[in-house]
Amino acid sequence: MANILVYALHYEGAVNKNSLGAVSEAAKLAGELGGEAHAILIGDGAADVAGSLGAYGAKKVFVADAPAGLAGPAIDAMAGVLNGGDYKYVLFGGGLLGFEIGAGLAARLGAGVAMEVTAVTVQGGELVAERPILGDSSISEIKFRSDIGIIIGRLNAFEIKQSGGDAAVENVSVELSAQAGKATLRTRGEQRGADVDIEGADVLVAGGRGLGKAEGFDLCDQLAAAFGGNSAVAATRAVVDAGWYPYAAQIGQTGKTVAPKLYLAAGISGAIQHKVGMQSSENIVAINKDANAPIFEFSDLGIVGDLNKILPKLTEAIKAKKG
What we know:
alpha/beta
């Protein structure tokens, strides 16, 4: 059988949304391969949410008693499960921890790994991972020659689907390696904007490299707050890659597709990869100091100027209008 094992991250009594997407995707792919989708949860509280993954297609969920949120213990736990089962692939929903665990697991097992994957298909009884390359202008297809193939998706690459069903829960013991105990988790960070629903927003204030730095998004946050109601802040692939804003807010070919009533682009050049994610917006307003920026070609209103001066004035004008 060609079973697929999924690393599922959980926090405060809930499984991470990207992990639910990965479990859903694994269930679909495993079904086409004639195998099963299994998942592994690690750390305190894992047993409380393990059974819920059955609704997303997992047939079995392993609960490992090891420190959560760290790559070393997760690699030890997953390697133990993989060595004891009939597995052909491992799937991660993405995220920094997923990248770290996936890379470490590949090194441990001598397995091939594909990162930043946006789609997976079954071809000839094998999984083929699709990864954007050359600035997302082309797609490469990746097959695996190793006994186990490791696939790490981009955030939001895999759709969450509830297929119903129950999952068998199995507790597993973990023999931690010496290096797994070298790190401890002191605090857990939160991504700014990670919970914002940009796909359902009526007004989106999107920022690009023209903001200059991560702190530049404060101007976007303030403008979105001034609009109030169902408003949110979004970002381009370039600034997400730079670490200025979380992946959850990324718009474009490899991010989310949006269609708000008003899309205000601040410092965004308007590359084709970004355009495909927002071109259905009802009204597009662009602010850019470069009069030749491509985004002006498909904007309803274009403003050539310094957004560091324009955005604060626009924020104050919105506040004044709304009283």
